[in-house]
Amino acid sequence: MIMQTAVRARRPPETVNPFAADVIAGLSVKPKYLPPKYFYDLAGSALFERITHLPEYYPTRSELGLLQKYGPAITSLFPPGCALVEFGAGASTKARILLRAAASVEAYVPIDISGDFLQKDAARLRRDFPHLAIHPVVADFTTMLEPPAEIAAKPRAGFFPGSTIGNFEPHEAAGFLRRAGAILGAGAVFVVGVDLAKSPDILYRAYNDEEGVTAKFNLNLLARINRELGGNFNLEAFEHHAFYNAERSRIEMHLASTKRQKVRLCDTTIEFRAGETIHTENSYKYSIDSFQVLALGSGWSPIKAWTDGLFSVHALRMTEDR
Ligand SMILES: C[S@@+](CC[C@H](N)C(=O)[O-])C[C@H]1O[C@@H](n2cnc3c(N)ncnc32)[C@H](O)[C@@H]1O
Predict the structure, then answer these.
(1) 109 Cα–ligand 1 center, Å
(2) Residue whose C-alpha is closest to residue 264's, from 44, 20, 33, 39
């Protein structure tokens, strides 16, 4: 059955806007931080899409190349008649390659926190894959507990591309892999795209593009706070900073205050020193082995990994009986 509207995951009634609560909490501590999931409103998702086309942003090109080359081998691991569940689907560009390579997939479940962007993409998918059941789910995949009812009886394959797993702290990545295992079920195959540690120069350029799109993506977080929470951030008074932290094997993104200033939002005043930053994202870089060790410790058996030396795509199997 093809659904016309996205399922909104149920959450308990709340009196406090969770976005507002997370922003105030993150800006009230030292060092200041904001959770990266809030990058993705409609404007943020569109900016991320632009990032994926930048010459400096090798991860998308690399992963697309791997999926095109090894798509048939990857999808041959999927259980017959399965539902493909994608965590953080974005524009579903990569899923389309797998869906074309896998005749045996009967349903596609794109999950994303960016609801408007997800809806638009689902409409395009329905047009391009008229025989596939598409069940979009607007949800935070870090708190989701089960798959939508429409695919409860189907075997499942999971997909988590874009190295979104690198945005978690390693212990959170392990927790997410366990949660995904519970959602996908015993016997499921999980295809995960993971960026690899490499030359700091290549990494630096990927997050500091000449056109300044990554800077706009980072600053959109403050623009979103202004739009949705009535904040008065002056975007001209903050700068995009991205650098490689070799000790932690991660790219860090920050927004640095160019001067001493006060910002008001939600009846709260936040003070910034000149040069003080808001830490907005980490992107951890793994080796093939270090990711496989993480997966093994989270209930998944590595089956195979494909790489072009820059990026890796892993196939994992859920072996634990849940
Ligand atoms: C790095 S982008 C990857 C997009 C796409 N899968 C790709 O590979 O190009 C991360 C995606 O995950 C979504 N996302 C981030 N955090 C999320 C969360 N906690 N729950 C659900 N979706 C999330 C974003 O909206 C965005 O579409």
Answers:
(1) 14
(2) 20
Q: Residue 30 has what pLDDT?
A: 97
Separation CA 122–CA 229 (nearest Å): 28
pLDDT greater than 60 at residue 108: yes
What is d(CA 283, CA 196) in angstroms, rounded to the nearest whole number? 10
110 CB less than 6 Å from ligand 1? Answer: no
Tell me how far the alpha carbon of residue 87 lies from the centroid of ligand 1, in angstroms. Answer: 7
To the question of pTM greater than 0.90 for the whole model, the response is yes
Instruction: Report whether 132 contacts 99 (CB < 8 A).
Output: yes
187 touches 317 (CB < 8 A): yes
CB neighbours of residue 48 within 10 Å = 22
State both tokens at 309. 């030396």
Between vectors from CA 35 to CA 31 and to CA 13, what angle results, nearest 5°?
Answer: 125
For 319, other C-beta atoms within 10 Å of its C-beta total 13
Angle between helices 18-27 and 213-229 (to 10 degrees): 120
Write the DSSP string, 37-76.
Answer: GGG-SHHHHHHHHHHTT-TT-HHHHHHHHHHHHHHHHHHT
Nearest CA to ligand 1 atom 12: 88
The pairing of beta strand 133-134 with beta strand 107-112 = parallel
